[in-house]
Amino acid sequence: MLMVEIPVEKLKDVFDLLIKRVCADEEVVRVNREAFWSIASDEAYEVYSEPGELTIGMLSESWSQLEGMLADPDRVVGYGFVWLAEVLRAIGDEATS
């Protein structure tokens, strides 16, 4: 299995660069999307098999979970990266449409 190594400092730099580009002088990012297809993580990387059951995720729920972690850092969980990815995907899709 191929492993991709991502230096944390470079990841932070890329994130900062993209946030500056998308947000410019805005204080709020507006996303005109809500529901999205979600695929189980154990199936997402099995590219030689068609995924089984798709579920529907809600962008507002993902964002709410992230806000909950901001409000109470004891609630921070690794799955937060998945919620963040869902939000960032929607922002990226919005920015390129």
Offer a few descriptive terms.
97 residues, mainly alpha, two-stranded antiparallel ribbon, 2 strands, globular
Describe this structure in words.
- By secondary structure, the chain is mainly alpha-helical.
- The chain has 4 helices and 2 strands.
- The chain has a two-stranded antiparallel ribbon with strand order 1-2.
- Helix 3 (about 60-70) crosses helix 4.
- The radius of gyration is 15 Å and the shape is globular.
- The model has no long low-confidence stretch (mean pLDDT about 90).
Summary, kept brief:
Helix content is about 50%, strand content about 10%. It is mostly helical and about 100 residues long.
Strand order of the largest sheet: 1-2
Secondary-structure element order, as H and E?
A: HEHEHH
Main sheet makeup: 2 strands, antiparallel
Mean pLDDT: 92
Query: Nearest-angstrom radius of gyration?
Result: 15 Å
SS field, number of helical segments: 4
> DSSP strand (E) fraction?
5-15%
Q: Helix share of residues?
A: 40-55%
Residue ranges: pLDDT <50 for 5 or more in a row? none
Instruction: Give the oligomeric state of the chains in this entry, treating copies of one chain as homo and distinct chains as hetero.
Output: single chain
For the record, give the distance between the C-alpha atoms at the N and C termini, rounded to a whole number: 34 Å
- Described by the principal axes of the CA atoms, the overall outline is globular
Structural class: mainly alpha
Give the number of DSSP strands.
Answer: 2
